[in-house]
Amino acid sequence: GGPRPRPGQEVSVKVLGALEDGGLVERDPRLSFVPGNGDVVQALELGVPTMQPGQVALFLAAFPYAYGRPGRRRRARREPDVPPEAALLFEVTLLSVRDGPDPQAMSPAACLRLGGQRRDRGNFHFARGDFAAALRSYRLALSALDGAAAEDEELREQRVKCLNNCAAAALKLQREDEALAACDAVLRISPDNGRALLRRGQLLAQRGRDAEAEVDLRRALELDPASKVRDAGCGTDGGRRSQTPGR
């Protein structure tokens, strides 16, 4: 009974997930998330908004809507692995629906927790190769961190990590303007961030802005002589390296 979740609302669900052989791989008595924010597998993202409070539903999810081609590696001793390309059967009970959290009304500690959860989810998507979903999660993490009324070193550090991760995901999607903007944002917060200097230097070199690229790449090399700047070269040919997110 009751209305289905609307966009932006937060839901709480009881979830059981099993492999086709019956092995239980998911058990959460109260999982809370906002559908559309990329915080859970797509089977739940797509399925739960069709439900009403109190309803119990079964969702049979092909592997792209569960843990994807790589599956899931165990994160805790009591949590079983999900094999690669595994279909899952989810039993879901929709417990409640409420308005989503307002970062502007949250404490700095709560903003940090929410931002960290969303960044972790972005890393999960990045590892699966779903770079668009990863970028969306990193942006949502930034919006949570930006809601903190107070400012401290930990918040700045988390913003820098999220922005660097945005740059890495944008590069995978060949959105070089977005990657460059993310690097600029990092360096406004942390002018000596080696990861951002290296990425920006490479991007500038690819655009033929060699003098600016040389400044960034030389500074990155000064900060970390063991870095891969030497391979990129000051006056680089613009060859692109694999970019991975900061954890």
TrEMBL record:
TM spans (from-to): none
Entry annotated with the keyword Repeat: yes
Pfam families found in the cross-reference section: FKBP_C (PF00254), TPR_2 (PF07719)
Alphabetical UniProt keywords: Acetylation, Cytoplasm, Cytoskeleton, Isomerase, Methylation, Microtubule, Mitochondrion, Nucleus, Phosphoprotein, Repeat, Rotamase, TPR repeat
Record flagged with keyword Nucleus: yes
Reactions this protein catalyses: [protein]-peptidylproline (omega=180) = [protein]-peptidylproline (omega=0)
Stretch list, region Disordered: 228-247
Localization: Cytoplasm, Cytoskeleton; Cytoplasm, Cytosol; Mitochondrion; Nucleus
Ranges: TPR repeats: 194-227
InterPro entries, A to Z: FKBP4/5/8-like, PPIase_dom_sf, PPIase_FKBP_dom, TPR-like_helical_dom_sf, TPR_2, TPR_rpt
A Gene Ontology biological process term: negative regulation of apoptotic process
Principal cellular location given in the protein's record: cytoplasm
Top-tier EC class: isomerase
Enzyme nomenclature, EC number: 5.2.1.8
Name by which UniProt lists this protein: peptidylprolyl isomerase
